[in-house]
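Sample entry (345 residues):
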Amino acid sequence: MEITVTENTLETSRHTTGYLAAGPTDGPLLIFVHGWPELSLSWRHQISTFAGLGFRVVAPDMRGYGRSATYDSVADFGQEVIVADMIELLDHLGRDSAVWIGHDWGSPVVWNIASHHPDRCHAVASLCVPYRTLEHSWDEMVARVDRNVYPIDRYPVGQWDYQLFYQENFEKAVRVFEADPYMTVKALFRKGDPRGLGKPALTASVRADGGWFGGADAVPDVPADHDVVTEDDLRIYAEALGRNGFFGPDSWYLNHEANSTYAASADNDGVLSMPVLFLHARYDYVCETISSELALPMRDCCSDLTEFTLDTGHWMAQEDPARVNAALVSWLQSSVSSWWPIFPS
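Predicted structure, serialized as tokens:
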């Protein structure tokens, strides 16, 4: 069955959101939220699969990306306003609630929707980034660095060093990524490498190296990893990032204090009672949740938590969509069965 995916736009007085949609308009709603430096395109394998199963599937371009509006102020990329974008989108879709699925920086967004707007969140799933980490507290996130891999004298903030580079050298970070967006995405979208187990992530040395990619002024030319993205995919990513630039996407990293304040205002002290799914990526060495304690706060704050571990890297939805989709189906059927499409007899 061929799935029709449509491009749509929501314009309000405060923001414009472009989004992809597929599946029956009256199907149970799944909203997929991408991270850095991605697009709604990142969920292409999930959109077609779940629309074919009878869900209404929506994947927005997030603030600063693709066909959505971008801004000139760092403060315009804090979690509170981004969550407001998503609630506007849900209202526009005419729905009271949805199952929200996030990855990378999309994960803090869906975690915040679940914790601040539980009435608008039937269930929530996250790939790679656990609850009560990136959206919650920079200090607590650093406190859970695996010091067996990152001795504190050499790696004071562990694998999160690259985020301090954004804070200290923001213009350079933006300039390097923007020098050639095609080379940037070609270098970034790569499958997981088992050889990295137990070794420091490259992101732990960004400041010591003088910047991303060893301090280079532009991203080096490396072979594309077509196990993750096709050449057409890369061109679409590069065109969108070349048009919008990296100021917006990179600004998501500069709002830790405001995001922490926002997280502190969550309902029920941040404890989630709806069904929750978390997918660990075994070969994600930045959001490393297998050996470290990064996922522990999530387990204390979710009363209905399901966890699966996949043998992938960080870009799991694109690297191994079959297993990601299978994990989502298993969880939806077992823990969110009331949301499963019902077909007339």
